[in-house]
Amino acid sequence: MKRSALRTVSVILSLLLMCALISSCDNTPDAGKDVYTVGICQFIEHEALDKATEGFRAAVTKELGDTVKIVYQNAAGEKMNAQSICSSFASDSVDLIFANSTNALAAAAEATSVIPVVGCSVTDFASTLGLTDFTGKTGFNVTGYSDILPLEKQAEVIKELFPEKGKVGILYCSSEINSRYQADEITKHLVSFGFTCENYTFVDTTDVTLVTEKASRECDVIYTPTDNTVASNTSAINNILEPAKIPLVAGNIDVAVGCGIATVGIDYYDLGFKAGEMAVSILKGEIRPEDTEIGYADEYFKKYVPERADALGIMIPEGYSAIE
After folding, report:
1. Residue 28: its pLDDT value, please?
2. Which residues contact 28 (CB under 8 A, 6 or more apart)?
3. What is the C-alpha R_g of the chain?
4. DSSP for 128-183?
5. What is the pLDDT of residue 177?
């Protein structure tokens, strides 16, 4: 009897331990909580990222109202800050992390394997997360919305504006994984259109001017992918390209406004809003991040900067709208 009772207690304890372990690995928040805590890690102050965060906040508060507490942190463009922020969120056991930008997503994914992470403004989730066999879902606690632009469409913009072909200099920060991916992909399209391409890369803001000067001397047109360092240095880039009369086609609207003539763009507010709706569904237990495919923008549009196009004598074809 005594041995039988001990065996029964042992079995019960084993079952309880298994349940606890399963619960600890579950990426679904407690759907019955009175107040959810959502941590936002935005990598840097930048118009596109700001709009995405604004859209995310709007979607989450619209649905959850007073039942959600949002904690916003900005990493000021420093990877170590992003890592510290996300580690703090993990220690505080927030219910969900919104990681706005590539570096923020990398930091959040490293900080926790349990708390749901919704990424946004990330071009290539697979490269950022080190996934070699990516089929649309990560299979773990991370999902979100990508800001990848149709690179073939961007190559078509260069083809339409510069039909005489020539050399395209691809200007970007070598430490940004997404930028390298975009540079490689658009090169394939441009070469198929008859252009020659060369990468002009800088490590950080300290050598942007030097690298841009070199590109302006050697190229007929410059292309910049979606790149945070470029976005933060558009004035410096424009101060070189404008007097040299070298046009730049940008990977997003903000860079086009700062130093470019045209772009294919998306609405970052809408992208953030969609990410917010996804986050709400996760918090409510309606979906799980590991089972949720990465989302993408629904619409793309061609834009141009009239003042620079006129100054360079570039004829803008139909299908483009002016950036106001």
Report:
1. 59
2. 116, 282, 285, 288
3. 23
4. HHT-SS-SS--SSSEEEEE----HHHHHHHHHHH-TT--EEEEEEETT-HHHHHHH
5. 82
160 burial via Cβ count (<10 Å: 0-12, 13-18, 19+)? middle
Could you tell me which residues come within 8 angstroms of residue 303 by beta carbon, excluding any fewer than 6 positions away? 253, 256, 262, 263, 264, 265, 320, 321, 322, 323
* Amino acid, res. 132: T
Q: In angstroms, rounded to a whole number, what is the distance separating the alpha carbons of residues 96 and 66?
A: 16
pLDDT for 43-81, tens place per residue?
Answer: 999 888 999 999 999 999 999 999 999 999 999 999 999
- Domains belonging to the chain, first-starting first, are 36-147+268-293 (3.40.50.2300), 151-265+301-322 (3.40.50.2300)
pLDDT, tens digit, 9 for 90 and up, residues 265-306: 888 999 999 999 999 999 999 999 999 999 999 888 999 999
Size (the chain), residues: 324
**Cβ atoms within 10 Å of 16's Cβ, excluding its own:** 10
- Scored b (16 or more CB within 10 A) or e, 210-235 reads ebbeebbeebbbbbbbbbbbbbbbbe
- Which range, 30-44, 74-88, 149-163, has the best average confidence (pLDDT)? 74-88
Query: How many Å is the maximal CA-CA distance in the chain?
Result: 96
Distances (CA, A) of 183 to 3, 136, 173, 178, 297: 69, 22, 10, 9, 20
284: enclosing H helix or E strand = none
